[in-house]
Amino acid sequence: MDITAPAIMLTLIWGIAIGCIYMLLATGLNIIFGVMKLVNFAHGQLLVVGAYLTWTFSVSAGLNAYVAILVSMVVVALLGIAVERLTFRRVLGGDKLNEIFVSLGLIYIFENATMLIWGTSSLQITSPFSGMSLNLSSISITYDRIIAVFVVIAALAAFGLLIKKTKIGLAMRATSQINNTAMLMGINVEKIYMITFAIGAALAAVAGGLYGIIFSFNYQVGAMPTIIAFAIIIMGGLGSIKGAIVGGLLYGITEQLATYFLNGLWGSAVAFALLIVVLIIRPRGIFGEKGE
Amino acid sequence: MGKKVNNMDIKKTLTSLLRKRPFQFLLVGFVILVLLPVLITDNFFLYVLTLICISAIYAASWNFLANSGQGSLGHAAFLGLGGFASALLGNSIATALIRLLGTTGMPIGALSVTIQILVLLVGGLLSAGIGLLIGLACVRLKAWYLAMVTFGFSVIAHTLSSQFDAITNGVNGFAPTTLVPRGFPFYILVISFMFSSISIMYLIMKSRMGLAFRAIHGNEAEAKMIGINTAKYKLIAFVISTFFAGIAGGLNVYFLRFVDNSIFAPANSFLPLIMSVIGGLGTVAGPIIGSIFWVSIQQILALPSVVNSLQASVGQYFPGISNVGPPISLIAIGVILVIIVIFEPKGLVSLFRKIYKRLGVETHEKAEEKKKRKNSVSLFRNFYKQLLGAKATEKGEIKK
Question: Does domain A10-122+133-281 sit in CATH 1.10.3470?
Answer without folding.
Answer: yes
